[in-house]
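Q: Predict the bound structure with coenzyme A.
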Amino acid sequence: MVDIVVRHFEHSDLPAMLETRRTSIRRICAHDYDHDQIMAWAPDIDDVEAQATRFAKTQTWVALVNGNAAGFMNLAEGGYVDCLYVHADHQRCGIASALLSMLEKTARAQGVSRLYSEVSITARPFFERQGFAVTTPQTVTVNGQQYLNFRMEKMLR
Ligand SMILES: CC(C)(COP(=O)(O)OP(=O)(O)OC[C@H]1O[C@@H](n2cnc3c(N)ncnc32)[C@H](O)[C@@H]1OP(=O)(O)O)[C@@H](O)C(=O)NCCC(=O)NCCS
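A: Predicted complex:
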């Protein structure tokens, strides 16, 4: 049984979060997207400041396993679930579920009635399991590459 602690993001978490994001995309999303898509999504060099600003401007939570950041998730204005990544070495241990539970609890307390996101092929089964439904499949462009993903939503009651 994995001991998971979810807490707010701190700036010092950034290196571990970027490592989590890279392994997650390169080893897990690579099952569903091709090499060029993966390398455009998770290039060798991160725009660290852009990511730091993104997390600082949203409500961002980090999941710690044995004291190390192994996943993160954030909530932006209007109920938009912006990012969710779990380290490739810690898949299917309940980390994303723990993060979403915290996010939903917070959103409800803040009066948010609807969560929505743009979800990868890879993450779709997780979000469906958590009560989200696909509203629209869509193609988005990131760093010159096109990606199929899904707009999904969940009403909070
Ligand atoms: C999607 C993701 C965040 C799920 O994280 P996780 O911590 O492994 O998820 P959990 O352990 O909390 O999973 C809870 C349940 O969701 C479902 N689920 C999760 N991943 C699944 C998968 N790949 N296929 C089918 N069901 C899945 C299962 O029902 C699972 O319960 P179980 O393990 O007891 O069967 C993780 O796989 C990931 O980082 N993916 C790559 C990054 C990504 O695509 N992020 C989203 C960008 S939009």
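A: The longest strand covers residues 145-155.
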